[in-house]
Amino acid sequence: MAASSEHPPDGWAFLGIGDPFLVAHDERRGLLAVAGTDVPSRTTPVAVHKSRFFVRSALIRSRFPVHAMAFHPRRSPLATGTGRYDGGYSFEGELLLPHLKTGVVTSLIEHELGRQVLGLEWLDEHSLRVLMAPPDDWRDEAVHEDGHVAVVHRSDWTAVLAQSLNGRDLAGPRAPAPRPDPREAAQRAVAKLRSVWQAQRPVPSKDL
To answer: What's this model's pTM, rounded to 2 decimal places?
Structure first.
């Protein structure tokens, strides 16, 4: 549904995802991904829109909170990092790869509990940088502030199989991995949405 170009809807309710929590914007292709906080459903919705008029083109749901999203530089996949601390030992989560044209969502990490994925960056069309929390907090007091970085290479990310990333793929050096305050993340998401909204509004013509 296209929204009015005059004013953004109060609370962004038309997005259908609850409160916005995270935003990724591909200006070149005019794509906007918004992760929300749909508490009643107990899943995290991610909606992909055409940013010109905020028309939704895809909707997926994650069983974990979403921490990172990154559009592939050339192809359809939207890398989506999710996860949480289970409260007692493990940092579990998924690296999801929704294919925006087909609607198919592939979960890539082989391990049963997965990994909490905190950051994602495409270095080029074949290489994805992944920042993850450590697998668990066993005898390690810094795990809530540190993580591991891996660069995963695939020749064709549209053909990557489910559960195909193993421990070797995700091995990497230790790195700082601060967890931002969720309220700050939500504020940044809303600010980003408003900036995109303002950019797409038509400029009134002036009478000559």
So the answer is: 0.88
Mean pLDDT, range 133-152, rounded to an integer: 90
CA distance 105 to 186: 25
Instruction: Flag whether 5 is in a domain.
Output: no
206 assigned to some structural domain: no
Residue 24, phi then psi, degrees to nearest 5? -125, 135
**Which CATH number covers residue 83?**
2.40.128
Both tokens of 17, joined, read: 């995802």
* Integer Cα distance of 102 and 124 in angstroms: 23
Number of domains the chain contains:
1
Of 207, 185, 205, 206, the closest CA to residue 34 belongs to 185
Range of the domain at 84: 10-200
**Structure-block tokens of residue 194:** 């408003």
Q: What distance in Å separates the CA atoms of residue 129 and residue 121, rounded to the nearest whole number? A: 5
10-33 pLDDT tens trace: 568 888 888 899 999 999 999 999
Return d(Cα 177, Cα 59) in angstroms, integer: 28
